[in-house]
Each structure stands twice: as C-alpha cells, then as structure tokens.
From TrEMBL:
Species in which this protein is naturally found: Camponotus floridanus (Florida carpenter ant)
GO MF terms held by the record: nucleic acid binding; zinc ion binding
Gene3D superfamilies: Zinc finger, CCHC-type
SUPFAM superfamilies: Retrovirus zinc finger-like domains (SSF57756), RNA-binding domain, RBD (SSF54928)
The protein, known as: CCHC-type domain-containing protein
InterPro entries in the record: RBD_domain_sf, Znf_CCHC_sf
Amino acid sequence: IRKGISGSTIIEMSGPDNIKKADLLASEMSKMFTGEALISRPNIKGEIKLTGLDESISTNDVCDAIASAGPCKPSDITVGQIGRNRFGNGIVWVKCPKAAALALAEKNKLQIGWSRVTVELLPNRQIQCHKCWSLGHIRSKCRFNKDYTGRCFRCGEKDHKVDTC
C-alpha cells in the first residue's frame, strides 16, 4: 500500500495470479464503498504505432486484432484516428496494456484483415500537467498561475482542439 503521485491510495498486488486478485479486490471494494470512494483498477499502459494499414481497416478492426494477439480486453485498448502518410499507408497510435504492447512489438508485425502491419513500441512519455502543459508534474500539484485548460495545444486558442487546428 502506498500513495500515488496525485495523493490517492494505491494497493498493489504481487505474485502469481496478481491480475485476478486485483480484479477481485477492486470489485469487492467497489461493492463496500459504493458512493463513498472511487475504486478503479488501473494497469500500466504502453503505446505502440501501427503503420501500413490499408483503407479497408477501421479502428474497431485494429482493436479486435490487438485484443486477440495481445491477449488483452478490448476495453483496455485505446485506438486513435487512422491517419495517412504521403504514400497513402494508414498510421494509427494505440494505447494498450504494457505486456500486450511489449509482446506485439517483439513480434514486429501484426495481421489485420488483409494487411500485415508494422508494430513500433513508442518510448514512455513523461507526465504532463493539463493545466500549464509543463512536464514533470500533474494538475493537482501545479504551482503555475496560467491555466491552459480547454485550449488548443498547437495555437493556444479556446475555440477548438488540436485535431481541427
């Protein structure tokens, strides 16, 4: 048992079957503390970049392929928007459990539909404050006066987000 960076209490499980034990503990604690405390079951995530997707592949196809190859639950996977490089090949950013990301990156290739895509493990990101956008601390520990919450990360305006800038 320890304190997290945000001040929350973290209970870590170790040993064999630690994932099952943690899931069981989280579900039992959620029943006990309904409405009194927020109980979550976070897991360490890894980020990968998939390149070489054809136009027929959707984000759901990517999620399903990673879940089956991972193995991990589709609910633990976050898939970004599929973009295109100058050659027309699809590129997508994926966040999934670290163990699945490492396993996929070790294989280096993943079959999705008719495409065999390249898997690249991205380096870990440093924590970033969502208030001042500085690195190395989080919002609850921020000492800066400027608040950039809800602003475009590229230009700093309030009317839109970075994906439409």
